[in-house]
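re the bet — no i am not wrong, look at it urself. input seq straight from the record:
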Amino acid sequence: MRRGVRIGADVGSVRVGISICDPDGLLATPETTFARDAAKDRDIEQVLALVDERTAIEVIVGLPRSLSGDEGPAAQAARSWATALRRRRPELSVRMVDERLTTVDAHRVMRDAGISTRRSRSVIDSQAAAMILQVALDTERTTGTPPGVLVGARKARHRGRGKKEDSA
């Protein structure tokens, strides 16, 4: 398992939930929530400031797919956000991981803890980000390979075919 702090992001249309893990990559914890700012990307700047502050090696972004695995507008928005983050900091590893049901699970955890979900939506977003990051950490520990798909990675070229394409 690679050593280093990782940041998890649950990108929504209103908020971006943020989580962080310890340098050994064992435990993800909810950190904060940033207001989504699609117009000026202030949320992306806030995440990059946290990357710098914590000297994070990677950002894990949840990819909200439907139960069937299809991608809708929310998945496209998350991909666009992850791509914008990577463009701002090309040397930063940004990975997309499947986040099916994490928000539902976060609601359940909060409800089981006796916390009103109506009053704590920002907490739910950071809890969902922690669940996304924890799944990524557990996957890497189990498989020995980084989870998900690297944003901005190039697909292998095939002889006689066109130019390289982005994989995420």
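see?? The domain at 6-150 is CATH 3.30.420.140 (Nucleotidyltransferase; domain 5). told u. also Helices lie at 42-54, 73-88, 102-112, 121-143. so pay up
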